[in-house]
Amino acid sequence: xxxxxxxxxxxxxxxxxxxxxxxxxxxxxxxxxxxxxxxxxxxxxxxxxxxxxxxxxxxxxxxxxxxxxxxxxxxxxxxxxxxxxxxxxxxxxxxxxxxxxxxxxxxxxxxxxxxxxxxxxxxxxxxxxxxxxxxxxxxxxxxxxxxxxxxxxxxxxxxxxxxxxxxxxxxxxxxxxxxxxxxxxxxxxxxxxxxxxxxxxxxxxxxxxxxxxxxxxxxxxxxxxxxxxxxxxxxxxxxxxxxxxxxxxxxxxxxxxxxxxxxxxxxxxxxxxxxxxxxxxxxxxxxxxxxxxxxxxxxxxxxxxxxxxxxxxxxxxxxxxxxxxxxxxxxxx
Length: 333
Ligand SMILES: Cc1cc2nc3c(=O)[nH]c(=O)nc-3n(C[C@H](O)[C@H](O)[C@H](O)COP(=O)(O)O)c2cc1C
Ligand code: SF4
Description:
Layout lengths: L11 H8 L10 H9 L11 H9 L5 E5 L9 H8 L1 H15 L3 E5 L13 E4 L10 H8 L14 E5 H13 L1 H6 L2 E8 L5 E6 L4 H8 L4 E6 L5 E3 L12 E6 L4 H15 L5 H15 L3 H11 L7 H15 L6
Parallel strand pairs: 1-2, 1-4, 2-3, 5-9
Antiparallel strand pairs: 5-6, 7-8, 7-9
Helix pairs in contact: 2-3, 5-7, 10-11, 10-13, 11-12, 12-13
The protein binds flavin mononucleotide (FMN) and iron/sulfur cluster (SF4).
Flavin mononucleotide binds next to β4 and α13.
């Protein structure tokens, strides 16, 4: 079952022939109610209920809607693949989100698309730099306001940032309804690492990790990092309750999970914007403690950085390390 990838159509006329015209909702609140009933959760990493974000933005004065195609996760390609294969579903979702909240301006961040004849809300495309934090929502808001795309602790209710996959799902829910969606609730997964066929796959939410490995030709792995660099390590028999940003990195059997985690934390430390204490001091110290196998210090630092930054970068890093300590416990003895 691949409800999203099988709806692919690059050309607008082909898209309309295959998926039908853009289903404007007309009635205020109709889309938000449908999203609540569908149970759609965001696909940019946070897994947050989409209807709540739209409801909050819809009461703001002439808000701004932004499609987030930054895809700063190095191991993620699903947003690029989606925009290549189904650009019109993403754009339909963006138009429908704009209608639902009464948008004043609409942006696409991190990709370029041509205007379409069916669009009521003109889209301004804004470039995104290729950094890990440029896709964080407050960095995205800064970018469309002409500032540097750096995360801040600015949380604004008059700006709606949605991942491009979330928008494509909105377009499908508007067309086929919440009940259809509940039966077709899949996610796009970028699978890499110890597999023969790395790439983007579409699978049902709640699947076992092993199913992803089977699809991509797993070659033997003891754990898979699910969600992205802010995600969690899972064993192949476990199920994926929260797909995060849809990343799945299969650890080769001969590799150390804690060493791989140390490498990722080193990268995450290098990608922070170094403006808050936990990122500036905590993440480099955490990467070093992991590499030096000083587990007590690792545990202490994880507790110190968690929840103490302006954005969720330290929290995501803490989550990753906690799961590594649990799943690779035998390595830390
Ligand atoms: C450090 C950091 C980087 C992020 N990068 C991205 C990104 O590249 N693309 C994305 O869609 N969301 C990214 N997010 C999540 C966004 O902040 C935001 O939750 C998301 O775009 C909202 O869309 P959604 O509700 O549709 O998932 C990032 C979050 C953090 C903390
Ligand atoms: S928590 Fe880290 S990444 Fe986020 S704003 Fe502060 S320094 Fe930058």
